[in-house]
Write a structure and sequence with these properties.
About 25% of the residues lie in helices and about 30% in strands. The protein is α/β, with parallel strands linked by helices and about 100 residues long. A five-stranded mixed β-sheet has the order 1-4-3-2-5. The protein starts with 17 loop residues before the first strand and ends with a helix.
Length: about 100
Amino acid sequence: MFLNSGFKIVQGDNKLVNLIEDWGVLEEYTGEKLGFYQILAVDGNIEVRVMTGRLGFKKEFKDGNDKQLNQILDFCKKSRFIQISEHLRDEDFFK
């Protein structure tokens, strides 16, 4: 189903993460919500992914000493977000 405004309504799928580009928005939105973050190596760069509620943020950095990258990681640690190392399907977790 499409609306005239250009937004698409996805019915029956509640597993979506809404990505935002402005880190400050996610910082303000967090409050006391549980959050998760992941650090990935992507083509020689560092990608950080952060999710709280249904909002997500992801960005690649060329340098591990980048000011914003360290700000994001400090925020995640201070907010007691859980670092995710990888993900598996439930049925594959226990063998």
